Amino acid sequence: MRIIISGKQFKVDPNLRRYINERFLKFARFVKEPATLEIVLSNFMGPKGNDQAVGVTATLPGLKNPIHLEEVTNDFKGSIDLVEERLEKHLLKYKEQVKIGTRYPQKYHEAELEEEDAGEI
Question: In what order do the strands lie in the sheet with 2-8?
């Protein structure tokens, strides 16, 4: 999984970058390799506070549209934690869809229907 971290109109410090990597690298086990995670940190009002936003865009193999999540709190670590929880729920749902899709491929459903139709005639 490739993680891209960027800041909107400010530079992300190494401690925050390390914290983000620790929180989001655990999702590599949920998805296959060509997945990317783009994390954008933004501070709308500057030093006034209560406006640190974290936006995450996850592009996953097999999905037509990427997953986009955004949270705004008074500090970046709180926003990162909230986005991480929401992304975990989305990725668990994605993992279940992939598992069910490979467990019961469409071609076997069609073959069973054809055999049942042939026996009735």
Answer: 2-8, 36-43, 52-59, 67-73
Give the range of the structural domain holding residue 37, as residue numbers without chain letter: 2-120
**Residue 36 carries which side chain, given as an amino acid letter?**
T
Quote the CA–CA distance of 75 and 15 in Å, as a whole number: 14
Number of domains in the chain: 1
CATH code (residue 7)? 3.30.160.100
pLDDT tens across 22-74, in order? Answer: 999 888 887 777 889 999 999 887 777 778 899 999 998 877 889 999 999 98
Q: At what angle do helices 76-103 and 14-24 cross, to 10 degrees?
A: 30
